[in-house]
Structures are given as structure tokens and as C-alpha cells.
Amino acid sequence: METHYPLLPLLLGQAVFTAVAALLVLYLVFTRGRTVTEGREQAIHEALALANRTLPYLRRGLTRPTAHKTALVLHEFLQPAAVAIVGGRQILAHVGAGSDHHEPGREPLTRLTHEVLRTGRPAVARTPEGIGCSRPDCPLTAAVMAPLIVQRRLVGSLAIYFGDSQPLTAGKVKMVRAMAQLMSLQLELAEVDRKAARLAKAELAALQAQISPHFVYNTLNTIAAFIRTEPETARQLLTDFADFLRRTFRRQGEFSPFAQELEYVHQYLSFEKARFGDRLSVVYRVDPEVLSTIVPVLVLQPLVENAVRHGTSRKVGPGRVCIIAEDRGNEAWFCVEDDGVGMSEELVQRVLQTRRRDAFGVGLVNVNERLRSVYGPEYGLAIASRPGEGTRVSFSVPKYKAGVEV
Amino acid sequence: MDVHWLSLAAFVAIAVATVAVGLFATRVVRTTHDVYIASRAVGPVLNASAISGEYLSAASFLGVAGMVMKFGYDVLWYPVGYAAGYLLLLLFVAAPLRRFGAYTLPDFAEGRFNVPAMRRLAVLFVLLIGVFYMLPQMKGAGLAVQTVTGLPYWVGVVGVGGVIALNVALGGMKGITFVQAFQFWVKAFAISLPVFVLLAVFGSYGAHWEQATAQPPPALAAAIASGHAPGANWGLPFGPLAEQQGHALLFTYSLIVATVFGTAGLPHILVRFYTNRDGHAARQTTLVVLALIGWFYLFPPILGLLGRVHAPDLYVGDRTDALLLELPGRLPQPWLAELLRAVTAAGAFAAFLSTTSGLLVAVAGALAHDLYAQTFRPGADQRERLLAFRLAALLAGAVAIVGGLQMERYHINMLVGWAFAISASAFFPLLVLGIWWRGLTAIGAAAGTLLGGTLASAAILYTMATSAGEQPATLLATLLAQPAIWTIPVAFGTTVVVSLLTRERVPPDVNLKMLRLHAPEALGLRTSYLQ
Q1: pTM for the whole thing?
Q2: Which residue of B has its CA nearest to A260?
Q3: From-to residues of CATH 3.30.450.40 in chain A
Q4: Are B176 and A253 a contacting pair at CB < 8 A?
Q5: pLDDT for A13-64, tens place per residue?
Q6: Distance separating alpha carbons of residues A279 and A338, to the nearest angstrom
Q7: CATH 3.30.565.10: which residues of chain A?
Q8: Closest Cα in chain A to B106
Q9: Contact yes or no for B42 and A406 at CB 8 A
């Protein structure tokens, strides 16, 4: 059956289609223009985005995996023929053309790379002969190479290879050099990170080896005082002290179960109680559920030592030290309280805000620092003190934290 | 219905005793002499009592006896499944997980792969399992209060749920090991004493068996005749529960699979293992748990038998879930009846109190610690974290109460079976493969957990929405009503296949992780503390 298409709807449809098409064309024209004027901002944005993407890798240092990941990012971003990163006298990564013979782990094959590594200056080659690859069938035709320099030391080089369809412009040369400088900066950050970690380890070792001279002096005096009157007690104290010192000087690693910390504190307090006698009383309130929590080493003893030394020993009359460990679900909470002379507000602030060790409260400051560096700033020490009334130092620790293990 | 005042007093007594035990449980040590007591670890027997206490919920205390009475002796497959899960824990999970040092399952999920997103995924299912497990406890509470005081169902749910939520929110984690251990011994006493008393009063076990199967007393015979109660096949190994060939049997198998594989993934059980000193102690604890739970489950079936003979009226109103609270009332001496009723009421209360508290702590902890503190607000300070926990406990409690109010028509054990199904589908592959297979990748684990858990949850939610709590009729309905038998293999298979497909993403430190999981303590590779 023959159908007639009515005229009016047809015209209407045609009009709508034309209108839509016109709008589309107008939109494209105007947005294209906008893209052009925003081109510079776009380029800066892309450059910063690139830096952001390579930082997490290079921050861990220049190794084969990090170089490979970085080269992938650069290759995706620049779309050159190939990207190569050389470090420590070997090819660390090669992404793109020529990766069949430019393999990671081998010595660099191009004369150009050797020249850059020797002189520490950037270099450009516009022909395959200029590149000087030892393989005659190498597809790489043009290259820009720049050295990677960390703390005035040459650690490697970055090479961007271009193909026949990509002309080597001055702009490209500048870009590669800038990129190498950026990478060098990021590698410097890795160096700084490593140094900071080494410093923390050294401080910990020093803390572990350190023992308060006052404490040794006082304990030996206490033992001496018992020799005539209670020789058996003196003998026991002496052997206990020897054991205590042995434990202190032995390298223990960074973390240990809380029960071990508690034992160490028991031992320490046995000497202090021998010295102070009835003047010092100690109360433990320990939830057994937190005994297996892994905590940093020497995290409790400095707090107790602080409580005894600055709380009780400076006080006239008997003093009480409370050691509390509470099970709080996903966290364990620890607290050392004393009813001694207390600390002034500014002293408390000084302890909490100091980043280096200083003469007073060396234990508290170090404990605070270590807690913050392992668990985060919100897990540092909490100190509440009123001069003349006492001090309470507390902290909490997640029962499990990735990376914290004995 | 009159109010059983002694039972009500027993409720209150248990609640007060719980709080008291919690307060006094913390070791306060003052003199020099017993200073080492403060650092003595929780031993296997104590910890096993705590785990058993937290594990034996309203389902075990009230539900099993009622189901034995209603469906026959082959309901014993339920307790077998409930207990057998610990065998799997003992063989595959307990020691390695303790050595790993993870406190919760999300901890393990993140720590095994060093991928924080795994923590969030695990938390999702922890919340789901926790809520599903709390619902039957709420039903038990509503039922118990209704039976004891005559007040409507919702009073028990809101009242008990509210008390528990408040207790947890206001710091009810005090001395949790001792509290849960105390609850276990209350329950053990409360389930065993009635058996001895009733058998002493009513006659021997053998005589009851005769009456239950071959020569039913008049009331029972009437119930059988009217079709409310199962007949002589009640006592057979494949009795009424399995007699409808095919589907009911499939349902039972699926349920057994769910309970056996789901125990390891229950959020409130895993955290109790952290208290153990080391992996060896964890294994010892699990062994003792098997013994304690096995011993406990000797008693509910006997009570079911006694109920069939002495309380057949419960068949007629389908009130067999309340058996344990009604049965003492059949004793001829009223004072003895009231006393025994108070004992079982105390046990029932201890049952849902302990499990609900444990679940609430686990769920609130997951919300406050894993979601809030680790994911949304990493800089939250101590006070904020504590507040987050309190609010989370109240929120989760509210959800449990609201959910519990809707649960009146479902059997307690059905609800529990669902929680186990989700736990088995989402977490069992993650745990077992994470602990024993080097080739597991984060993506594989995530895929398996997500797929298994989602399928199981979807099937269960569909069943909840469409059925009215009765036994499923068609094959499809059965598979949806208890999905474990197909969701677990799917989860396992997905995990394995996706891990093999992404094998280049195996974590580089997997060997270190394996060492941490499996190196025996005797090698002395890690310092364990002295005792």
C-alpha cells in the first residue's frame, strides 16, 4: 500500500534536525577556540600531572622496577619511539622500539649513552650514526639524552628516542632536559627519605644502648647499702641488675609484645623499689587482652622512669606510680600516672613539640617521636600534668598495624 | 500469661553479674611479690571458655532444643556443623592467623596484601554478617521476655537490645575475656542442670525414648494425629527434617557446609584469638573450644526429647523455640518449676547477651576503627575515635533492634544459618587461601570475596523478602534459602581463577608473609614473651 508522508511533520522534522546540526557546529567552533586559548594552562597541568605520576615510583629510588614504571609513564605521556633509563652502569628500563636488544640488566649499547655518562652533560643525536648503537639493525634514529644527577653525583641518564615522523625540535630537547631535572629532584627526595630512616634507626640504637647514669649510680649505691645488713638481698639485686643491663644492651629489634615491655618495667622497678623502700608504691592495672599487642621497644620504661625520677624522687613523702593497660577494642591504651611534683604547662608543650632530643625528658620526647612516626601524629603521647599534683602520660596503639611486627 | 518473677530476677542478676565481672576482671596488682601476675597471659582454658561463651548464642541455647523437638533427632546435624567449624579453624586458621598478629579479619585482609582497599571490602561483609547474626539474638530476647513476663515481643527486643547497646557504648569492653568465660559457664550450668533434674523427676532417658517414638502419651499422640507433630520417624537419623527427599536433604547439606566453613570468618570469634600468647596457644585454645562446645551440645537434644514427651502442646502453636523456657513449667512441684525456669532464663539471657555484645563490639569496632579512623578521617585523635566507637555501637544496636522487630516469623536457627552462609562465602576462601596459597593476589581475593559474599547476601535477602519463613518448596527456592553449597565453590573458584589470571600481581613480599604465618615458634625466629 502506498503511504503518503504528510508534509507538515516532515518539514518540522527537517527544521529540528537542521537546528541541532547548527548548534553542534557552533559548539565545536567555540570550544575549539577555547581549547586553543587554554592550551598553555593545559600544558602546565599535564606537566604537573606527569610529575605527580612519576613521584611515587622515583621516591623509592632508582631501581629496575621503579625505572620501568617511570619509563612507562613517560612513554604514555610523550608518545616517543622509545624511552630508556640508565642507572648504575646498566640499562634499568627500555620501553618502546628497540627493546628487543636494549634489555634491562645489560650494559648500555649506544655510544651516545656512554658519552653522557662520561661527561655528565646532555647530548642530542639526529641520525642513527649519532646515536651509535652497537647493533646495526637498531630502529632508533634520533635521541635526546640528559643525565640524572643526585647531590652532585651522576647516577644515571634519561633517553628519549624519536622516530622518523617526529622531528627533533629545540622544544623537545628542552623538554627532555627539564624532565631529567625533575626526575633528579625526585630521586633526591628518595635520598632524603633514606637518610631520615637511617637517622631514626641510629637514634633508637643509641637509646637502647643508653642507660641513665643516675639510675646506675643510684642502683649501685642501693646495693652497696644492703651488703652488710641484708647480704642475700644485695646479691639478688646485683644479679638482677646484671641481667637487666644485659637485656638493655642487647639489640632487640624495633618492636616487641607489650608483655615483654611490662617485664622490663618490672625489673627496672625492682631496683627503684629497693632504693626507695616504702616511699615508692606501684600499682599495675593491666587487661590481659593487651599483653600480646605489638608495641615499639622501650615505649613504657621511659615513661615509668620519668614518673619515678621527676615524680616521686623529687617529692617529699611517699609516692605512687600507676601503670595502666586497657583493652579498647581495636586499640590498646597505656598510661603511667604518678602523684609527684608534676610538670608545668610549658614543659609539657616543649616535650610534645620538640623534634630533637634534648637534655630533659629525653625518654618522653623520643617515645613521642617514635609513636608518631610509626602510627601517625594522632597517636603521640598525651600528657596531663599539674604542678604539685602529679602527671599522667598516656598513649594508645592500634592492636594491628601493617608493617608493625616483631 | 503470668509473670515469672524469679526468672525476671534471674535476668537482672545476670546483667548485674556481667557488669560486675567486667569491672573486677582487670588485674589490679599492688605488692612487689606477685608483680608477675600482671603480665601473665590468658591461658588456653580461660580463652576457650571465652570463645565458647561468645559463640554459643540463642541459636544454640534455645534454638537447637526447639528444633530437635519439632523436626526430629536428625537436627543434630546443626550442632555438629556448629562445632565442626572449629575443626577447620584448628587445622587451617588458628595458629597462622595468631602468628600473623592480625586482630580482625579486615586487618588480615589488608596486611596480607598491603592493600588498604581490601580492608574496606572486608569491613563491608563484617558489617553484613554482624547484623545478620544479631537479628536472631534479638528474636531470642523478644521471645524470652515474652515467655517470662507476658509482655509483647517488641518489649524484649527493644529493652534487651537497648541495654546491650548502652553497655557496649559506655565502655562495656571491660574484661571481655572473663565476662565471656563467665557467660559460658552460666550457660553450661543452665543447660545441664534441667536435664539432670528433669530426668531425675520424670524417669530415665530410655523410657522417654520409648514414649517419644513407639508409645506416645495421649497428648503427644493427639498432636501426631492432628499433623502438628512428626510421628515415629522423629527418632530416625533421616527423619522428618530430611524426609521430603531431595530438597530438604539438600537444604541440610547446604546448611552443614555453611556452618562448617563459616565459623572461621565470624568477626566476633576471630578477635578472641588475638588474646592467645602465640600460635601454639591458639591451637590449644581451639582444641579446648571443641571439647567445651561438644560437651555443651550433648544437652539440647535431650531437652528436645523431654519436650516432645512432656510439652507436646508446643507443637500446636509452633512455639517450639520457647521449649527451654516452658519445659520447667511441666514439673509437678511449682517451686522447683520456678527455680528451674529461672535457671534456664538466666542461661538464655546470658546467651544472647554474650553473643550480641561480642557482635556489637566487632561491628562498632569495624565502623569506628576501620571505616572512620582509617578511611575517612585518618587524623582523628583519641577522643574522637572513642566517640566514633560509642556512636557506632548505638547505631549498630539500633539497626539490630529495628531488624529484630521484623524477625518474629523466622526461626532462630534459620537466621543464624544465613549469617554463617555469608561468612563462609565471603571470608573462608580469603582466609584459607590467604594463609596457605602463595599464588593468591589481592585482585583474586577481592573478586572471590565480593562475588561469594554478594551472591550469598542477594540470595538470602531475596528469600527473606519473598518467603514467610517456612521451609522452601522448589529446588531453586532451596538453593536461594541456604546458598552456601553453591556460593562457596563459586567464591573459591573465582579467587583461584582470577589469581591465576593476574599472577604477575602476586605481592613481592609473599614469602615473608608466609614465613610470618607459618614459622613455628620453636624456631625462635621471633621473640615471644617469657612466662
Answers
A1: 0.78
A2: B529
A3: 43-201
A4: no
A5: 777 777 787 777 777 666 554 444 466 777 777 778 888 888 888 888 888 8
A6: 13
A7: 210-398
A8: A400
A9: no
Q: What is the pLDDT of residue A32?
A: 53
Share of chain A above pLDDT 70, in %: 91
Contacting residues for B64 by C-beta, under 8 A, at least 6 apart = B75, B78, B79, B297, B300, B301, B304, B413
Grid coordinates belonging to B47: 580463652
- Contact at 8 Å (CB) between B448 and B491? yes
Instruction: Let me know if A10 is exposed, middle or buried by CB neighbors in 10 A (0-12, 13-18, 19+).
Output: exposed
H-helix or E-strand containing A183? helix A170-209
Q: What is the pLDDT of residue B498?
A: 96
Partners of residue A146 on adjacent β-strands: A158
pLDDT at B454 over 90: yes
Rounded CA-CA distance B55/B351 in Å is: 9
A399 to chain B, closest Cα gap in Å: 6
| pLDDT computed for residue A207 by the predictor | 65
Is B474 within 8 Å of chain A by CB? no
Which of B38, B277, B389 is the closest to A329 by Cβ? B389
A43-201 in CATH: which number?
Answer: 3.30.450.40
Contacts of A359 (CB under 8 A, 6+ apart): none
CA B493, B498, B504, B507 dihedral sign is negative
B101, B526, B529 member nearest A263 (Cβ): B529
- Beta strands of A241-389 (E only): which ranges? 255-257, 280-286, 294-296, 319-328, 331-338, 382-386
Substitution target in A63, A400, A404, A405 with the highest count of B β-carbons within 10 Å is: A400
Amino acid of residue B180: Q
CB contact (8 A) between residue A330 and residue B277: no
Q: Largest alpha-carbon pair distance within chain A?
A: 130
Measured CA to CA, the distance from residue A169 to residue A156 in angstroms comes to 24
Q: What is the pLDDT of residues A160-193, one digit of tens each?
A: 888 777 777 888 888 888 888 888 888 888 888 8
A-chain residues within 8 Å CB-CB of B277? 291-292
| Beta carbon pairs, A and B, within 8 Å | 128
Chain A residues within 8 A (CB-CB) of chain B? 252-253, 256-257, 259-260, 262-263, 266, 269-270, 273, 281-289, 291-292, 294, 326-331, 376-378, 382, 396, 398-400, 402, 404-406
Residue of A nearest to B39 (CA): A259
Best probe of the B interface among A240, A255, A266, A292, by most B CBs < 10 A, is: A292
**Cβ atoms within 10 Å of A192's Cβ, excluding its own:** 12
Minimal CA separation from A305 to chain B, in Å: 17
Mean pLDDT in chain A? Answer: 83
Does the pLDDT of residue B395 top 90, yes or no?
yes
Average pLDDT over chain B, rounded to an integer: 87
At B420, the pLDDT band (50, 70, 90 cuts) reads very high
Angstrom distance (rounded) from CA B234 to CA B224: 11
For the domain bounded by A210-398, which CATH number is listed? 3.30.565.10
Q: What is the pLDDT of residues B123-145, one digit of tens each?
A: 999 999 999 999 999 998 998 88
One of 3.30.70.1350, 1.10.10.10, 1.20.1730.10, 3.80.10.10 is the CATH number of B5-232+240-406, namely 1.20.1730.10
> How many angstroms away from the CA of B500 is the closest CA of chain A?
22
Best mutation target among A270, A286, A330 (most B Cβ atoms within 10 Å) is A330
Chain A nearest-CA residue for B110:
A402
* Largest CA-CA distance found in chain B, in angstroms, rounded: 73
> For B47-101, how does the pLDDT look when each residue is reduced to its tens digit (9 = 90+)?
999 999 999 998 888 889 988 888 888 788 888 888 899 999 999 999 999 999 9
Residues β-bridged to residue B505: none
